[in-house]
Amino acid sequence: VVAGIAALVLVMLLTVGQLVGGVSAGVAASQQDSGACATTEVVPEQGQAWLNEAASSSGLPPNFLARVISRESDWRPDLFAMDSNGGTWGLFQINRAEWARLNPASVGISGTPIGITDPMLHARLGGVLMKQNYETAQRLQAANPRAAYAQIDPLEAAVIIHNAGQGALMRYPNIPAITRDYA
Question: Angle 10-35-8 (CA atoms, 0-180°, nearest 5)?
Answer without folding.
Answer: 15
